[in-house]
């Protein structure tokens, strides 16, 4: 069970956004081949980061390994109990999603880990994700928060050409499909600065089930090579396709990550199938696709009674169902709130009764 060792009050104190640079330490070491590695530790004003290194952002330029962190930010949250990396994270859990974070990615990954998130989702898709910055963010967290690689669960994705910016692909765009997958996995390992990926997702099914299975077979090679520990798929809304992948795969999918919204009938049949097959269901668009329900007076009233926000009530609902929602917040206070509800559930607290779950399902329009 994931339990932090320090209370939240000290975290909020560190969020004075106007700290001055107070320590500058340059440590230079000779790297293999005679290169120099320069590491900087500076205080930072996180409200405007990342900017130039003199103003303290976590730098993630591929030509440099410099990392800049708020010194006050390093003695507040301490490591959570490690997740068993040979299996999926125990539930209930939350994932920090890094899509569309752009230049803030490294800082936000650090902030999320500092708040208590331990599960980070990204993709080898420069169009929407900054995977190298995710690598910098978690590496700095390891250094500054006393974490280890085994404390952090890194999930990334292979994205086909259809989902890439044609001018910025992470693999040779005219390579054979199988080699695109291999090159993408190699790029992810390099970008994330890790020797293994906890879960590799196929970002979406390929145009045909034949191509999907071809990609899956290459993804299985990464499992056999020890580069990846679990496989899954995202944006798969066809029960038939998911069943086929599961039946044909040598390495079975452990994750299905989909939008949780009315258009897909909230994946009711797929979620039942996931329960049947012991597949972890992850949700995204969990808040943005359900704004009407979250804005209703009945929803807000229940959230207030539970000492939650409408958003964290939604996360409590999903985790009570046994699912793992993604949170993509950029607000550190919201990160704290998200982690708090996760921890309440992990401690065994029953936040929502069966009747309350039925009420929320009705407000959302989730089939019973």
From TrEMBL:
Tree of life domain: Eukaryota
Domain annotation NADP-dependent oxidoreductase: ranges: 99-342
Keyword terms of this UniProt record: Membrane, Transmembrane, Transmembrane helix
Region: Disordered, residue numbers: 48-73
Biased segments, Low complexity type: 52-68
Transmembrane segments: 21-39
Family annotation (Gene3D superfamilies): NADP-dependent oxidoreductase domain
PANTHER family: ALDO/KETO REDUCTASE
Protein name: NADP-dependent oxidoreductase domain-containing protein
Organism encoding this protein: Discostella pseudostelligera
């Amino acid at each position: 069970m994931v339990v932090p060792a320090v209370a939240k009050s000290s975290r909020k104190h560190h969020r004075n956004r106007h700290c001055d640079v107070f320590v500058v330490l340059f440590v230079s070491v000779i790297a293999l081949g005679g290169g120099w590695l320069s590491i900087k530790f500076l205080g930072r004003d996180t409200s405007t980061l990342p900017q130039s290194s003199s103003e303290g952002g976590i730098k993630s330029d591929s030509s440099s390994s410099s990392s800049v962190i708020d010194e006050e930010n390093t003695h507040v949250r301490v490591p959570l109990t490690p997740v068993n990396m040979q299996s999926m994270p125990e539930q209930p859990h939350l994932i920090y999603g890094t899509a569309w974070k752009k230049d803030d990615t490294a800082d936000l990954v650090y902030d999320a880990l500092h708040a208590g998130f331990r599960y980070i989702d990204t993709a080898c898709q420069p169009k929407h994700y900054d995977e190298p910055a995710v690598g910098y963010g978690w590496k700095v967290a390891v250094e500054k928060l006393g974490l280890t690689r085994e404390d952090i669960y890194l999930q990334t994705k292979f994205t086909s050409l259809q989902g890439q910016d044609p001018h910025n692909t992470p693999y040779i765009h005219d390579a054979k499909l199988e080699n695109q997958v291999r090159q993408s996995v190699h790029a992810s390992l390099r970008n994330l600065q890790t020797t293994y990926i906890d879960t590799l997702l196929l970002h979406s099914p390929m145009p045909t089930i034949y191509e999907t299975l071809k990609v899956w077979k290459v993804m299985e090679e990464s499992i056999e090579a020890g580069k990846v520990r679990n496989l899954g798929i995202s944006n798969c809304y066809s029960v038939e396709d998911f069943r086929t992948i599961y039946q044909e795969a040598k390495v079975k999918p452990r994750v299905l990550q989909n939008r949780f919204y009315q258009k897909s009938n909230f994946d009711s049949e797929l979620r039942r199938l996931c329960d049947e097959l012991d597949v972890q269901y992850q949700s995204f668009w969990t808040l943005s696709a359900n704004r009407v329900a979250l804005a209703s007076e009945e929803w807000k009233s229940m959230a207030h009674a539970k000492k939650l926000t409408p958003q964290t009530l939604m996360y409590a609902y999903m985790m009570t169902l046994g699912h793992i929602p993604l949170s993509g917040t950029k607000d550190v206070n919201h990160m704290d709130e998200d982690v708090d509800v996760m921890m309440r559930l992990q401690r065994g607290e029953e936040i929502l009764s069966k009747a309350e779950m039925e009420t929320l399902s009705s407000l959302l329009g989730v089939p019973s």
